[in-house]
Amino acid sequence: MGEERSTVTIYVMGKAYEVPASLTIMKAMEYIGYRFVRGAGCRAGFCGACATLYRKKGSYKLEAALACQKVVEDGMYIATIPFAPAEKRTYDINKLRPTPNVLLEYYPEIARCLSCNTCTKACPQDLQVMDYVQAAIRGDIEEVARLSFDCLSCGLCAMRCPAEIVPYNVAQLARRLYAKYLAKTSEHLMRRLKEIEEGKFDEELKRLKGLSREELKELYDKREIRV
Amino acid sequence: MAYPDYMRRSIEVVEETRDSRIGKEFPRMTPEEREEVLREYHPDYREGAKRRLRIGPNKGDLMPHEVADLLEAHPLVTPEEIDLSDIYYDVDVLVIGGGGAGLSAALLATESGVERDRVLLVTKLRLGDSNSKMSQGGIQAADGPDDSPVLHFLDVMGGGHFANDPDLVEVLVKEAPDVIRWHEELGVIYDKNPDGSMVLASGGGTCRRRMHSCKDYTGLEITRVLMDEFRNREIPLAEFTSAVELITDDRGAVAGAVLYNMETEEYYVARAKATILATGGYGRLHIQGFETTNHYGATGDGIVLAYHVGARLRDLDATQYHPTGAAYPEQIVGQLCTEKLRTHGAQPVNRDGELFVHPLEPRDVEAAAIIRECYGRGKGIVTPTGMRGVWLDTPLIDIIHGEGTIERRFAAMLRQYNRFGIDIRKEPILVFPTLHYQNGGVAINVRAETSVPGLFAAGEVSGGVHGKNRLMGNSQLELYVFGRRAGRYAAEYARKTRLGRLTLDHVLRYERWLKEAGIETNRRAPILLPEYRGERVLTHRIRLF
């Protein structure tokens, strides 16, 4: 395709470079000659290592993206944010209880939320960040867990928040509390754990381990598939 | 980035055959058919892709050139440039790697009698940066009422072509339910039904539904909980710090590592009574030129470090190509399209909208069948950049399970493609096999011990659990089963170990091996990070200051 060969001009920390138009910000920076130590992780949108802020020429708007997922555009001014100096509180999850106040207790600054929604606009995952910060203030742990589940902790919301809240650390605490104290227990898991503890499968596993490759293969080929 | 017209026309054909394919199951291959497609189309069987290693305990073993190149390379450091008397870190347990296995090992070491300050975790990127975090589909554990660890055992062995170490597999399947319990106690949110029972899905090569998931962010959810716990316990951590060589003592036991600050280029000597390799796999070596699903640091450092001290490796002849990597759009080529899509009903179909393989054959068979469709039968679709692929008919998922299923269970996949203007609820996606997993690695026993005293290994860097082919959901499982064991047994080993004099004599021995085998090369390993800089820059670089 002709358009694959076309180029655009981007400004990496203010310096202009011409790069192929089809590249992501990350690959464009490598094309230019950057070798990442910081600012590159999974390269597939799962880890948040490549948080990036950019502004397009002529626009006042500061936009946020993951460098590995965002294709370059002509006139992009790019600043990578490889680290967010954000506060994380420490706690012993076994000693906490999922009370309505626990999130406020560990992260009292959430009460400073101005409801400006800047966090939501900064989220490269398009999460409703402000909504879950509000849910955290209300003590609705389950709602925080649900709304924040796809969070990559990239740091962009925290770096843009005028109230200096670190939404993702609040959400991490909420999710752990939800799983540990609020989610229902799985009966079949508990039953199986007990059976294993009682040694129910030991003899059969021992027998299988003693079989020849051919005998085992025969059992495998004949096993009933119930999915 | 939406599909160009000619691809849209093929999609229309896929749409035309869709109704007739609902509920239709393409027959599974017979054992003979599987062997045939593997032999003829799996990249592992390609003529000239491998060579026999010329040095060390695995001399004579076949492995991909890219791996042999790393093992037949000079160590990065020489003994004369490292002052081993200048000990910067002095610990009982050194954990190298910050993914699922490393995190589990560090947590368990502190629970097994090692004082917090006597543990150190080093990782060359950030804590948690790993393939562990990228896992989408799930983690296996035979806890379903109609399932059992015995059936799980059979699946793992058969999937691995019976080359697995049965003792390791026994431990894997027996401890699987306990791993799920451990995760839940730490605060991992697993997908559950309203009554609290687990949502269980099938996987390629499994005979029961035993895949547990956290939407399609399974690895992310588990890893970040372990990271949070690690930070709460304030276990010492050095990020952006690579292990570039192991250290041995005068008895030949591993006694720590030479570390390297990736930013300041400073080295540190870390003395440790026990050392755990949790460095992950080698996807970023791009075996046979394949794209990869792996994270940036997956450069096979662990097998290199282990081989330098003479640890035995195994099964490195077998590389896993995930059947469904993205083949379009160009920006995400090689990235993972989770197997969970197929467990939920998405079918692989060719350019004429025809089924050609059961969606859930073991990974190596499924991948080979897709390659055959594209290159043997010419029924693939060629992308604008010249890549071939087949369709994965994702809209079937919502048709079969009801609208909203993709949004609920496949948030990551939906978001990934939405970013490039493709709605996987309405349009199929183009896929082709992608380099995914290092099936083999450093040989370990059930205590996660390697063949060299003082050196433990867990996770993708290790070998034996999966034999020649890993099944979906067993790598996540392996991380925690053997990561925890490594932490526990390393702590036990450290308690009764007294280190001798530190040496790098094994580096000299390795140089001797290279010389005796007549290997003349300027390659050096481990490589630490892949090289992706543009050609212009690489041919015009000069070092001036």
Question: Can you describe what's shown?
Answer:
The complex is a heterodimer of chains A (227) and B (545). Chain A has helices at residues 25-32, 102-106, 118-122, 129-138, 141-148, 156-160, 167-182, 187-197, 202-209, 213-222, and strands spanning 7-12, 15-20, 51-56, 63-66, 76-80. Chain A has 227 residues and is of the alpha+beta class. Chain A folds into three domains: 2-80, Beta-grasp domain (Ubiquitin-like (UB roll), Roll); 93-182, Fumarate Reductase Iron-sulfur Protein, Chain B, domain 2 (Orthogonal Bundle); 187-222, no CATH class. Chain A has a five-stranded mixed β-sheet with strand order 2-1-5-3-4, with helices on one face. The two termini of chain A are 44 Å apart. The mean pLDDT of chain A is 96. Chain B is α/β, with parallel strands linked by helices. Among the domains of chain B are: 5-41 and 320-435, Flavocytochrome C3, Chain A, domain 1; 79-133 and 216-318 and 439-503, FAD/NAD(P)-binding domain (3-Layer(bba) Sandwich), CATH 3.50.50.60. Chain B is 33% helix and 18% strand. Chain B contains 16 helices and 22 strands. Chain B has helices at residues 5-21, 31-41, 65-71, 100-111, 149-159, 166-186, 218-232, 301-308, 340-343, 363-376, 395-401, 405-409, 411-418, 474-495, 505-516, 535-540, and strands spanning 50-52, 62-64, 74-75, 87-96, 119-122, 139-140, 211-212, 237-238, 241-249, 254-261, 267-277, 313-314, 319-326, 347-349, 381-382, 388-393, 429-438, 441-443, 455-457, 462-463, 502-503, 524-525. The longest helix of chain B is centred in the last third of the chain and has 22 residues, at 474-495. Chain B is globular and about 70 Å long. In chain B, 61% of the residues are buried.
List keywords for this structure.
heterodimer; A: 227 residues; alpha+beta; Ubiquitin-like (UB roll); Fumarate Reductase Iron-sulfur Protein, Chain B, domain 2; 10 helices; 12% strand; B: 545 residues; alpha/beta; FAD/NAD(P)-binding domain; 16 helices; 18% strand
